Amino acid sequence: MAETYEIIGIEVTALQAEVDLQINGELTAFDVEGLGPMGPPGPEGPKGDQGIQGTQGVQGVQGEQGVQGDQGEQGIQGEQGIQGEVGHGLEIDGSVPTSADLPVLGPDDVGSAYLAEDTGHLWIWSGTVWVDNGTVQGVPGEKGDKGDKGDPGDPGAQGIQGEKGDQGDQGIQGIQGIQGIQGNPGVSAYATTTADFTVPAVGATTTVMVTDASWIVVGQMLWIGLAGGAGNAGPFRVTAKTGNQLTLLNPDTSLTSVPISFAIAGRPSAGMMIHIPASIAMTIAASLAGTVGYANTAATANATFTLNKISGGTTTALGTITAPAGSKTGFTLAGAGGAVAQGDVLQLVAPGTMDTTLTDVGFSILAQRAS
């Protein structure tokens, strides 16, 4: 069998070399002495063959944690995953007034959901506790189509009667009406006296009985004929009437009757005033004799109007006209009357507290024109 030699290692000092020699697999070490001085290094030998793999060394101790490396670049987009199965969706099991009213559930009730009505929050059972998931509201849906017109509803009940409104302001004077058509001829009325009487002096009065005074009214002018001869015939004014007895005034022939009218449409307002300037001089008789009035709707309680004269800025009362309760006519007259000069103003003043029913009232004041 041939012997194999393999030099494992050589250590050379200045005068001695130590050689490790492996012979047939056994390592032998020997010294080589007596060497001469070391020569120059020889040329590098050829690379030896690859040695056989050594055995695995023992595990080294754990090294220290290295420093954090830099952030890596963003990876490329991954591929789209496959479509998942359709979920079961959220089912709300009910609602409770507040979260304190949520029911006690068990492990098998996981996913049960209830709405708290006071906050609108959705609570979901986890299996052990209720979890507040906040308010739940989907995105607004599209506007639906307009619905069909509904059937008319039943008539509502009659409302209660509203309160009566305040009296409106006096309307403006209407325009002059057109001329009325010619009336039928009047019927002559007359009565005879039952006894002779003496014609009083101008401005004085007397009483006389007649056969029928039903058609005669106070303030009316009567023509007395054949009064002690044609020379005594003339007009007399009725100042009073009791049954068929008349009080007659022998007026001054220089005076002529002048009716002055005040008309109020609707319900007079409290304290309202109507003014009529006097274009001529005239006299208003005492107790406003000859004045008449009419109301389309009678007063509930007596309503007294005042007739004044305004002269040079001074207001003087001439008399009063009282609309009686429950009657459209039969007005009560009072006052001293008086003279009215041209340019004075007659003023009619309504009561300060107005009656609730008196409406459409008018007055005709009978004055005597001065010569």
Plain-language structure description:
The protein is mostly beta strands and 371 residues long. Among the domains are: 35 residues, no CATH class; 39 residues, no CATH class; 45 residues; 114 residues, Sandwich (Jelly Rolls). Helices cover 0% and strands 35% of the residues. The protein has no helices and 21 strands. The strands form five sheets. Strands 12, 14, 15, 19 and 21 form a five-stranded antiparallel beta sheet that branches. It has a five-stranded antiparallel beta sheet with strand order 13-20-16-17-18, with no helix packed on it. A four-stranded mixed beta sheet has the order 4-5-6-7, with no helix packed on it. A hairpin with a 4-residue loop joins strand 5 and strand 6. The mean pLDDT is 81.
Kindly list the characteristics that best describe this protein.
single chain, 371 residues, mainly beta, five-stranded antiparallel β-sheet, 0% helix
Provide a quick synopsis of the model.
The chain has no helices and 21 strands.
Shape: rod-shaped
- Beta-strand content: 25-35%
In CATH, what is the class of the domain at 256-369?
Answer: Mainly Beta
Uncertain parts: none
The helix/strand series, from N terminus to C terminus, equals EEEEEEEEEEEEEEEEEEEEE
According to DSSP, the number of beta strands is: 21
Radius of gyration: 69 Å
Task: State the end-to-end CA separation.
Answer: 194 Å
- Major sheet: 5 strands, antiparallel
What portion of residues is helical? Answer: under 10%
Oligomer: single chain
The overall average pLDDT, rounded, is 81
Which structural category fits the helices and strands?
mainly beta
Question: Architecture of the domain at 256-369 in CATH?
Answer: Sandwich
CATH topology call of the domain at 256-369? Jelly Rolls
- Output the number of helix runs: 0
